[in-house]
Design goal:
InterPro entries: Methyltransf_16 (IPR019410), SAM-dependent_MTases_sf (IPR029063). One of its GO terms (cellular component) is protein-containing complex. GO terms for molecular function: S-adenosylmethionine-dependent methyltransferase activity. It holds the Pfam family Methyltransf_16. The relative contact order is 0.19. The chain has one domain: Vaccinia Virus protein VP39 (Rossmann fold), CATH 3.40.50. The two termini are 16 Å apart. It contains nine helices and eight strands. The protein is α/β, with parallel strands linked by helices. The protein is globular. Strands 1-7-8-6-5-2-3-4 form an eight-stranded mixed sheet.
C-alpha cells in the first residue's frame, strides 16, 4: 500500500469536515485520467493489469473508451435503459482486441472465417438499491470461476456527475462502499505487511457543481465511511481547477468499515 500512501499525500488535502468545502465534465475527466502523468498511473494504482468499474456510465461510454486500451478490463454500469445507445457508441468507437492471425497461407483451401474481435469493455446493469456489487465480475465473458472467486474487487472505481439530487446520495455512497469492501481497507500504518495483498479500491468521484445543498449531503454521507481528498488544482490542471465549476475527489474506505 506504499504506492497508495504516496498517491494520497500528493493529490491534495484530505477533507475532514463537510463544512470545509464549498455532463460537460466527462470529456475533461477522461482526458485527465488518460494522461500517463496522472498520479494514478504515476504511483502504480492504475496499471495494464487493472480492473476498473464505472458507476452511472451513461450512453457515451467516453471514459470506458479512453481507459480500456490501457487496462485489463473495464466494467461500465448503469440502468438497463442506457444499454442500447451505449452499445451502439461502443461498437462505433471501441478499439478491439484482434484475434491472432496465422502466419501461413494455404492456396486452394477455403479461408477459415476469423473469430470476432473482442472488446475489454463490458456493460452490466447495477441498481444502487437492489443489486450486489460482488457479482459484477460475473459479467466478464471467458473469465474462469477461479479467477472471479479469487478477486471480485477493482483497482479503481470511477463516477462522473452521477449525483444531482439528494435521493441518490445514500444508495450511491452505499454502492461505492460495497464495491470497496471487495478489497482490503487502506491502512497506512500496515502498508509493509500488506504489500502482497490486493490493493484497496480507490474511488474517483467527479462532479459538476450545481446544488451546494446536494453536494454537502453527499460529502457528509461519504465522510461517514470514507476518507476523502479533494484533488488539488496543481494535480488537476486548468480545465478542472478551481473556477471551472467542477470538483474531483478521491475516496478510500475508512479503517473499520471493511
Amino acid at each position: 500500500m506504499e504506492e497508495l500512501t504516496t498517491f494520497l499525500t500528493s493529490i491534495g488535502e484530505e477533507v475532514e469536515d463537510a463544512e470545509e468545502v464549498l455532463w460537460k465534465i466527462t470529456p475533461l475527466l477522461a482526458e485527465w485520467l488518460s494522461k500517463k502523468t496522472n498520479p494514478l498511473w504515476h504511483h502504480g494504482l492504475l496499471t495494464p493489469s487493472s480492473p476498473v468499474v464505472e458507476l452511472g456510465c451513461g450512453i457515451s461510454g467516453l471514459i470506458a473508451l479512453t481507459l480500456s486500451p490501457s487496462i485489463t478490463h473495464y466494467i461500465a454500469t448503469d440502468q438497463e435503459y442506457v444499454h442500447r445507445l451505449l452499445r451502439q457508441n461502443l461498437a462505433a468507437n471501441v478499439r478491439t482486441t484482434p484475434t491472432p492471425k496465422s502466419s501461413k497461407s494455404t492456396r486452394g483451401k477455403q479461408k477459415i472465417p476469423k473469430a470476432p474481435s473482442r472488446s475489454n469493455i463490458t456493460f452490466t446493469t447495477l441498481d444502487w438499491e437492489t443489486d450486489a456489487p460482488e457479482a459484477l465480475k460475473d459479467c466478464i465473458e471467458g473469465e474462469g470461476n477461479g479467477a472471479r472467486d479469487e478477486d471480485r474487487g477493482f483497482d479503481v472505481l470511477i463516477s462522473c456527475d452521477c449525483i444531482y439530487n439528494e435521493a441518490l446520495v445514500g444508495p450511491f455512497v452505499r454502492t461505492c462502499r460495497d464495491v470497496c469492501r471487495l478489497r482490503p481497507v487502506y491502512c497506512a500504518e500496515r502498508e509493509g505487511e500488506a504489500r502482497e495483498r490486493r490493493r484497496p479500491t480507490v474511488c474517483i468521484i467527479a462532479q459538476q457543481q450545481r446544488s451546494p445543498e446536494v453536494f454537502e449531503v453527499w460529502l457528509r454521507e461519504a465522510l461517514r465511511v470514507f476518507r476523502v481528498w479533494r484533488v488539488s488544482d496543481e494535480v488537476l490542471g486548468g480545465k478542472l481547477a478551481a473556477g471551472s465549476g467542477y470538483l474531483v475527489h478521491v475516496l478510500v474506505l475508512r479503517k473499520g468499515d471493511s
